[in-house]
Sequence to fold (682 residues):
Amino acid sequence: MFEKILIANRGEIAVRIIRACREMGIRTVAVYSEVDRTALHVQQADEAVAIGPPPASESYLSTDRIIQAARATGAQAIHPGYGFLAENDDFARLCEKENLVFIGPNSTALCLVGDKIRARQTMEKAGIPITPGMKSIPSNLAESVEAAGALGYPVIVKASAGGGGKGMRIVAEEKDLKPALEAGMREAKAAFGDESVYLEKYLEEPRHVEIQVLADNYGNTVHLFERECSIQRRHQKIIEETPSPALDPDLRNRMGEAAKRAVRAAGYNNAGTVEFLLDKDKNFYFLEVNARLQVEHPVTELVTGLDLVRQQILIASGEKLAFGQEDLRQSGHAIECRIYAEDPAKGFLPSAGRITFLREPSGPGVRVDSGVYAGWDVPIYYDPILAKLIVWGETRDTACRRMARALDDYVILGIPSGLSFLKDAINHPEFRAGRTTTAFIPKYFRDWKKTEKEKEDQGRLALTVAAFDEIRKTTGPDGSPARSSRRERPSPWRSLGRWRIGGQSHHGV
Amino acid sequence: MEFEFLIGGSDRKVLVEPKEKTFLFHEGADTWEADIRFVSENAVSLLVGSRTYTAYISRDRDSMIVHLNGADYVVAKRDEQAGGSSAREDKELAGKVRIKAPMPGKVIKVAVAEGDEVRKNQTLAIVEAMKMENEIKSPGEAVVTKIFVAPGALVDSENPLLELEVKAHHSGT
Fold:
């Protein structure tokens, strides 16, 4: 087993991985950019190494600096988390060359599945159904126009190196194709360092169902059932659950077996996810392999009882899977809500800034995987995910109620978060009925605004609190009006002033 | 003690009267009594009758957010509000509009040049924040009078990206 692991990531996933390492008695090395010196993952690791300026391309994507940090600290393995270098086969190869274990699939399989086009070709050969689309990267616009015409609009622009919705654009008609390709290429270049994009037919209102797979280095492969991830905005999942309301045991088994076949065809090892689209008639199509730990992995952990990060580390260190397919069961129901620094009332616009107050929910069946704390300045440079709230319940209904309760208990002030939006989504009759498709948010939440129940009454309470806060400035901390004025003290919030709250120095033009 | 606040856009005037361990609040003809304590720097426990509430407070320079039962109330002290954002917005309606980024980020592209005529919803610039591209669109038919930023610039949500002279409605076309 490894004695020390470097985590080449930041935020909630770095914290999540550090937790697993600590439980396994493995020491941890965090890496951080200049704006992340006081980030939570740096606080929680045993060691931390600075790897450069804020832009990811100069820090979290800098393979040389990360390898150097691993060498300097004597780490034996690197866990890439998700995003950044997680699916970069050059990096995996570099690790192999440097005698560092990359905690993920081998570089050959990573290269194959990371190239969306080659992955589609491989799966088609292995007899797994794929969505209609281009089978090579177009070399010019004319080729794309022709392919789009043949597929029939709407089509979707996808980054060949892609994932997480980056680089994706839906195109409804030909005149929008060129700008969509350009924007997709820019975004793909920024996110993955590779601007290749291609077109697929855009299936309307499908479900997004994925299968979690574990494969050790000896050919043993199991699937850990499905995750339903249909609730998306900007092609990025925000609510995930398992089991999927759309699957019955037979379909689950067929999709699980197809996923195992897919990873075997790719010569894949470690943890991975095979994504499928499921149409109205319950036909499933291979979408892609996510060759990493997924953001939504905790829902699988809650229903299977397995720690996926621990399993990844065990597999990477050369251990055999300690269980077979027949040992695995889905128990109860789990739901995850992703908490992003974004405003659902403004088209999910992301927003950086300081978290002035944070209160996380707890209680039976409630888990929070967070990368932030009160006082933390959420930087503008990275993905706006703050935390994930995951609940488990005996049934889907119990899990929904538990999620609504936990969202009620969750308070994040200072920056927008989707908490009230998520609660409305969870409580929506269509969600409660399990009728979740990728069209759910555009269909029911297009012009969503926060509902302000008991508005009058609450406005009065806000007034009460505001007046009391003013009174307290001239009295004791418990607000007792009889106290003398010697207890008067300036509010630290006032003396901090604007320069801390909105005036980050890196905003200078 | 009397206080005046702007809460979610409306003026609220309240008179507060200490009463042993509680306070009496008067607003217009309404009167209510609250037992109210700070439980931490940012959390207030209220008892109104037997009903209990917890409010969370986030303070900014000239305003604060009071969070109650999932709703956020922006509260500003009335005297500090004079000459604030509403006055600025009035000025903006008079033809010249300064377009700001909706959030801090990096300018990826400036899609127009000074002197350009632009349509409503035409893309003026693209600002990237947190790996997402956001298109900044024209609020109406206008002429670009000034550009303050160049691609690569880091911007916040307070300084303008560019300035437009918005045409009066129903003129020309």
Notes: The first helix of chain B runs from residue 85 to 92. Chain B has two domains: 2-80, 86-166. Chain B touches chain A through 66 residues (CB under 8 Å). Helices of chain B lie at 85-92.
